[in-house]
Amino acid sequence: PFPFYSDDGQVVKAQAFGSFGDNRKLFAGAASVLRYNTEGTEFAISFPSGTKDEELIFVRSDTLQNVKSTIEKVREWRKASAIKHHKVNAIDTILIPSLQIDHYEDMAKYLRGIATLDSGNRVAIARAGQRVQLNLDETGSQMKTAAFIIPPTFLSTGGGAESPVAETAQARNFLFNRPFQVMLWKKDADIPFFFARIDTSALKRVDP
Question: Which residue has the higher pLDDT, 108 or 184?
Fold first, then answer.
């Protein structure tokens, strides 16, 4: 069981996965560190997809609380990471709760009753919506929408060579045990195509 602390002080026992203890080398060399402050109050890690076209990003921060500021910061971190790449080390610990998101968004309110087709014709609409389902656990990540499916290729192990660890390196703890953000980002895109803030409602819980 992985204790997860919500904003309102509730503690939930969640299912979790990661690299810790004897399995610390699980993500070494495969996952990238986009951000880590020494206080452990802000960090972000990225996992590539099997095709390398998308990446799955996890962000935990005590200061980034809204979508706009989080995306702007992650955009900066991604650009810096492209210049100087930092991998997860074999001495680092990562723990992420397993997730199950099922979200429906009413899109009609954004379209204001009118939609433009590919042909250029404008038509009146009575109803429009998008459903997003995201499952994440130790087997990988799978996302479904009305338009596409991302195969469960994220979080695959053995995807990269293990990063050498300097003798002076300090073990880092990436513990996603408080509300955090998860996003899916195309390699050359300026913004993510999926963003969610994770609290207790999306967690796969351990039965009491």
Answer: 184
